[in-house]
Design a protein that fits this description.
The complex is a heterodimer of chains A (about 300) and B (about 220).
Chain A lengths: L1 H13 L1 H38 L2 E5 L5 H14 L2 E7 L1 H13 L3 H7 L10 E6 L5 H10 L3 E6 L1 H43 L1 H10 L3 H42 L11 H31 L3
Antiparallel strand pairs in A: 1-3, 1-4, 2-3
Helix pairs in contact in A: 1-2, 1-9, 2-7, 2-9, 2-10, 7-9, 7-10, 9-10
Chain B lengths: L1 E9 L5 E10 L4 E6 L5 H8 L7 E6 L2 E2 L8 H5 L2 E5 L10 H11 L4 H14 L15 H13 L5 E5 L7 H16 L3 E5 L3 H7 L2 E6 L2 E7 L2
Parallel strand pairs in B: 3-8, 3-9, 6-7, 7-8
Antiparallel strand pairs in B: 1-2, 1-4, 4-5, 9-10
Classes of the chains: A alpha+beta (about 300), B alpha/beta (about 220).
The structure holds adenosine-5'-triphosphate and magnesium ion.
The site of adenosine-5'-triphosphate has 12 residues of chain B, from α1.
Chain lengths: ~300, ~220
């Protein structure tokens, strides 16, 4: 075992060019994966807070009874797609309007007397669990005879979720290509290593080494390349995230209150294991298939 | 102990290297195999090493049919054999000690055991003072003695030597032969392929002569 490890490191060193190329591609794959992951996590975070604040506001036809509105509210809540539904009565709407715009001006308020100019303004504010169900729900609400008008921040929500999905798709494709390149390069690295050591391998076989013993150094080589290929981008990503995150918050923190950066810990607690599994996985996979094809007793 | 029954060997390329060869070798025998170039001598060694499989016939070693050995068990079988070649096949980037220690490490011997055994066997081979030398710093005869040390360090029951003196001058050749005879005296069966008829005559052993893949002579030199 110790011997195999020593051989593995020797292989990597002797075969510097391909080893570095492999580490480089694995590193690049994982780096790109990490960047995508961070962006997606943050977009997800923003979307999530967006989902909490932006929603749908429903206004009702004149003369709609409160019971009917409450019935709709119950229906929406039991539908499972809504996070929260708030009812604002016409009276409340008028009072809040008065407060906001008349500045408690007694005269003005008196001028209106008992008349409520906003008597059609009873509304339901609907907060969705998921932006994607918004379109369907708006459609359904418009069909409802008691509904007069539906306001929704449809476009923003749609664009955001579409962007999110697009980014995910593009990055998955990119990542896929990079992973294939990485596996290919590992194979080349290992194959070169096998070629360089072919005499030794032949002698080992004649002496009675098992497949496992002959293969072990090459598989370890693959794993080491995978681990190094994962650690380097993780370190770079960590530094980058901390620095860049601080910068972004300083620059835009005031302008975009919605926008908050996901904690470094939250990201790395999942990113580190994923990257490690990815790196070791690629290394193991690449080396095992090569070694199985090229080294047989 | 070694028995070949009607062995024929045709390479995938279509060359027939051995044709209906039968022979048996007893435990502790010393046997020369000679014959002109291309007569199938190396093929015989390869068959015994299970590097190639015969197209016809069976090979038995210690009563076991080689054709029935599973691929996974092949390494264990090979550990019973020692082998040396004309071109020595040493690892050029390791010194003498490491070249021999390598053979023991491959079969999982402990470091202490290796440390004890390797200098001892190299002493027997007359290389006690060359442990740290690299193959390119040794003469042909010395290199072959390293190879021999590597072949016997694990106490094989059969030692196969394919033209072990092919690259050596007469003096070195005789030294190697004497070492082979020493090894044979410890009970190891020794099979030596050689072109060198002078050596064959001098050693007075059993000689199997191949010609075009067939045994044409099998006699004891007196
Ligand atoms: N791997 C191979 N593929 C095809 N033909 C082969 C192979 N190895 C040997 N042969 C052929 O088989 C025949 C016997 O070869 P072999 O190596 O056994 O002869 P040899 O007696 O050892 O000869 P030499 O004294 O020159 O070493 C030759 O005709 C050779 O060309
Ligand atoms: Mg030959």
């Amino acid at each position: 075992m110790l011997y195999s490890m020593k051989q593995a490191f020797q292989n990597i060193f002797r075969n510097r060019f391909f080893s570095l190329a492999s580490i480089g591609t694995i590193g690049a794959s994982i780096f790109i994966f990490g960047v995508i992951y961070m962006v997606l996590m943050n977009v997800e975070g923003v979307l999530h807070s967006a989902e909490k604040t932006v929603g749908i506001t429903v206004f009702f036809e004149e003369g709609t009874k409160e019971e009917d509105i409450f019935l709709l509210k119950e229906e929406l809540l039991s539908g499972g797609e809504t996070e929260k539904v708030e009812y604002t009565s016409a009276k409340e709407a008028w009072e809040s309007f008065q407060k906001d715009y008349f500045n408690q001006d007694e005269e003005l308020i008196k001028a209106f007397g008992e008349d409520n100019p906003l008597k059609e303004s009873a509304s339901l504010d609907i907060y969705l669990k998921n932006v994607e169900s918004q379109k369907k729900l708006v459609g359904e609400l418009k069909e409802n005879p008691i509904v007069r008008k539906v306001n929704s921040s449809d476009t923003i929500a749609k664009q955001m979720s579409q962007m999110n999905r697009m980014a995910g798709l593009v990055s998955a494709a990119l990542l896929g290509i990079l992973l294939i390149v990485a596996v290919f390069l590992i194979q080349t690295t290992i194959r070169t290593g096998i070629f360089v050591r072919r005499d030794e391998i032949a002698i080992m076989k004649l002496i009675g080494a098992t497949d496992g013993m002959v293969r072990a150094p090459f598989v370890i080589e693959g794993i080491v390349i995978g681990i190094v290929g994962a650690c380097i981008p993780l370190a770079v990503l960590y530094v980058m995230y901390v620095k860049l995150g601080r910068m972004i918050v300083q620059q835009f923190g005031d302008a975009l209150p919605l926008f908050s950066i996901v904690d470094t810990e939250t990201i790395f607690v999942t990113l580190v294991p994923i990257a490690m599994v990815l790196g070791v996985g690629i290394g193991l996979f690449g080396s095992i298939i090569t070694v199985r094809r090229h080294i047989r007793v | 102990m070694i028995r070949l029954e009607n062995i024929s060997m045709t390479y995938p390329a279509g060359v027939t290297a051995l044709q209906d060869v039968s022979l048996s070798i007893e435990k502790g025998e010393f046997v020369f195999v000679t014959g002109s170039s291309g007569s199938g001598k190396s093929t015989l060694i390869k068959l015994l090493l299970c590097e190639v499989k015969p197209t016809k016939g069976n090979i038995y070693i210690q009563g076991k049919n080689l054709g029935n050995i599973k691929r996974r068990k092949l390494p264990l079988y090979r550990r019973k054999l020692g082998v040396v070649f004309q071109d020595f096949r040493l690892l050029k980037d390791r010194n003498v000690y490491e070249n021999v220690a390598f053979a023991q490490r491959v079969i999982g011997k402990s470091k202490q055991y290796i440390h004890h055994q390797v200098p001892q066997i190299l002493e027997v081979m007359g290389l006690g003072d060359k442990l740290k030398a690299f193959p390119n710093q040794l003469s042909g005869g010395e290199q072959q003695r390293v190879a021999l040390a590597r072949a016997v360090v694990n106490h094989p029951i059969v030692l196969l030597a394919d033209e072990p003196t092919g690259n050596l001058d007469p003096k070195n050749s005789m030294e190697i032969m004497e070492l082979l005879e020493e090894i044979n005296k410890t009970g190891t069966t020794v099979i030596v392929v050689t072109h060198n008829l002078e050596i064959v005559k001098a050693m007075k052993k059993r000689v199997i002569t191949l010609e075009k893949g067939k045994i044409i002579k099998d006699e004891r030199m007196e």
